[in-house]
Amino acid sequence: MKTAPTPATWFDGLSAEAQKVWLILEGPDLVLQGAEGEVARYPAAALAWATPTGAPRPVLALPDGGQLVLAGTGDAAALGIAAVPASIVERAGRSRVAATGCLAGLVAMIVAAAIWLVPAFESLAKQHLPWRVEAQLGLEVLRALDRSTLRQTELAENVRRPIARRFDATATVAGLRGARLEFRGGGALGANALALPGRIVVVTDELVRLLADDAMIDAVIAHELGHLHHRHILGRIVGESAYAMLVAAVLNDHSIVSSIASRAPPLVVQAIHSRDDERESDAYAFDLLRRTGGTPEDFARAMQALQRAHGSAPESGGWLSTHPPTPERIEAARAAK
Ligand SMILES: [Zn+2]
Asked: In terms of domains, do 75 and 129 share one?
């Protein structure tokens, strides 16, 4: 028995060169016919389909490592070589029910990650992230803020030096070793203070000019040290990144991973702190102020000054915009005395 010649491309497994051949099933053998007659012969029983026979260009694996690429689906059927049964994975790939099941499973995994894994990542990072990594992250975030939002400080050295000296003393009492203060023009952020990973506090020129009173500046800084002590922003960045990385890994989408680095600065600047974070930092500040010669009243005065500066819209813009209602915080400060 002999089949009609079927066209195919032959890779002999030795050279990368493709050869045009005709395939003829001759008894128990598959014969490869070139322009000048037979070029190779294999027992049909030793052949195996490397792809499903229904693939657009089915591939037949040869026992010597070579391959035959057929021109079309019909050709595989015409050859009459028994198809290898499709694997369970291939069958699942073709089944609508299985595909829907996989998608549902994927969604369930992402939801489970959001509920259990992300908070776990956050607390793991807060407790175990190496200082070197956190410091590096802080520098990256500061650099990104410098490129996008912040300006060079215009405060005179003799204005900055005493604030920095008091910052160092307060950070020492707080036990926040390696904490450092950076002065910057606030740009669009105006009168503001930020707590970055790596124990970096940024204070804007506008804030220093607005408060113009050592005790009030120290009170705002004490609040930012509270964020550092509780590692609020680090947890937030790591939590967001962990989720994005998981989604990227599951969906194999690399664009999500590359966006993580650019996501951190907006997180620092926008409404990043939950109300609970703010209350926690306020309470920390009241306690720290008492231990460093200040009072919670300094904090209340700072809040009032910021509120006055923002005029009729006290909750919009600047330091206040990321925080719980100002009157509530002033009240809490006065109650803490
Ligand atoms: Zn805050």
From this structure: no
Q: How far apart are CA 201 and CA 217, in angstroms?
A: 12
Task: Show which of 85, 102, 133 is a domain's final residue.
Answer: 85
Going from the Cα of 26 to the center of ligand 1, the distance in angstroms, rounded, reads 82
- Ligand 1 midpoint to CA 277 (Å): 7
Number of domains in the chain: 2
Q: How far is the CA of 331 from the centre of ligand 1 (A)?
A: 16
| Contact of 192 with 186, CB cutoff 8 Å | yes
Ligand 1 midpoint to CA 245 (Å): 27
Residues 117 and 57 reside in one and the same domain? no
Q: Say if 94 falls within a structural domain.
A: no
- Residue at 99 is within a domain: no
This model's pTM is above 0.85: no
The answer on pLDDT for 337 being more than 50 is: yes
- Rounded Cα distance between 202 and 155, Å, is 13
Determine the 3-state secondary structure of 123 from DSSP: helix
Q: Cα(156) to centroid of ligand 1, in Å?
A: 26
10 CA → ligand 1 middle, Å: 69
Q: Residue 126 and residue 235: Cα distance in Å, rounded?
A: 6
Question: pLDDT, tens digit, for every residue of 249-260?
Answer: 666 655 554 455
pLDDT in tens, 64-107: 888 888 887 777 777 777 765 556 666 666 677 777 777 777 77
CA of 115 to the centre of ligand 1 (A): 25
From ligand 1's centre to the CA of 182, what distance in Å?
Answer: 17
Dihedral (CA of 255, 131, 235, 336) sign: negative
Q: Do 271 and 201 fall into the same domain?
A: yes
Residue ranges making up the domain that contains 311: 110-335
**104 is a domain residue:** no
